[in-house]
Amino acid sequence: MRNRIIGTFLVILSGLITYSDKLGFEFDYNFGYSSTDNFIFAITTTLSPIILAIGANFRPLRISFIFPIFIFSANLFWMVSDDDSDMGYSYHYAFAVVICFVLLILFVDKFIKKEKYYKNKVSLLEALLDLKIAIHDK
Description:
The chain has helices spanning 2-16, 36-56, 66-80, 90-137. It is mainly alpha-helical and 138 residues long.
């Protein structure tokens, strides 16, 4: 259980660190970026998928993946929108993406369970038929 908690924490952290540019840090040297905010955003958007991949190896709670998906979608919609100063409707669009993602996961999960059920049923029937043949061969 401890590994799942660590994994869940890392998955949520992968979404949270993309907002660390809003904390107001100022560096003297920005490695060629125009501002510290741009530098921090570039670094955190690079580190975020790495942290997400590490956290996913700890088998976190599946519900925790909603958080980075929401954050990444909101950032994506903000980056392609015309309004650079405000998130605008990005959060609404990101919420819609999360809802679609959850519905897709539920549909795929139900489909996989249904396939496993039928596969187990077929295996059971094959085993019963093999048993019947083995009994009558004697």
